[in-house]
Amino acid sequence: MATPIVQVDAFTAEPFGGNPAGVCILPRERDEAWMQHVAREMNVAETAFVIPQSRGFGLRWFTPTVEMELCGHATLAAAHALWEGGHLPRTEQARFQTKSGLLTADLRGDWIEMDFPSTPAAEVEPPAKLLESLRAPAKHVAKSRFDYLVELESEQAVRSLDPDLRGFAHLPARGVIVTSRAATPEFDFVSRFFAPAAGVDEDPVTGSTHSCLAPFWGGRLSKSKMTARQVSSRGGVLKLELAGDRVLISGQAVTVMRAEILA
Q: 73: closest CA among 168, 180, 200?
């Protein structure tokens, strides 16, 4: 029997922006090898697999090469697909059991608000390979549960960064977040994210990195609510709110493709 799959652009209201994610809502559990094959076939940063459970849904995320412990944009895409496809009433909260615990999503007008665990970064002595691969002066270096976080001097420095991705791939982390204060008043900060070790050279818009960026910039700016922009070539906008040891991450999403898996 054919299995439906959709492609959703997350953290954007316009098609072909934000971060594309595959979303496959399964009638039953499938084995890990099959999910990895599908993610490789989709060849986007992450493909989400949603499995109905007695209370909510199971959710797993795969890049073309590995399974991830936490992914924001594909969670946003999964919630959008559940509501849009009629699998869940739009008035009901999407509840996902994941490798990072319970994650929830609520529809707030045209925006989807996700409740994620905060993953704050602690200042560290940067590895020589990180500084060498960065190819730009680092203002501050820290490390979260998943990633290195590097603050640069300006938004222009973040936008023009051209790192050595082969060097990043050999660091003991999922990836490298590069960030600075925003140059325009409509945004509080900007970022980019590189994760070649996970099969994603540069992620267009990364929800999970903002679980780290929100407490980092919240402390620096003395703010609990912020608006961020990820300045990849596709780009995307996120609204953030600190809530104790959680971060509320909001974005928009749009479906751009529907298909069926015949294997």
A: 200
Q: Are residues 12 and 48 in the same domain?
A: yes
The predicted structure's pLDDT at residue 218: 98
Count CB-CB contacts under 10 A for residue 153: 13
Total structural domains within the chain = 2
Helix (H, G, I), strand (E, B) or coil at 57: strand
57-84 mean pLDDT: 96
Can you give the length of the chain in residues?
A: 263
Q: pTM above 0.90?
A: yes
Contact partners, residue 175, CB within 8 Å, separation at least 6: 146, 147, 148, 168, 193, 194, 195, 196, 197, 198, 200, 203, 209
Strand segments, DSSP code E, in 69-187 are 94-98, 101-108, 111-117, 122-123, 140-143, 147-151, 175-181
What is the radius of gyration, based on Cα positions, of the chain? 18
Q: Which positions are annotated as active-site residues? A: 46
State the residue range of the domain holding 34: 3-115+250-261
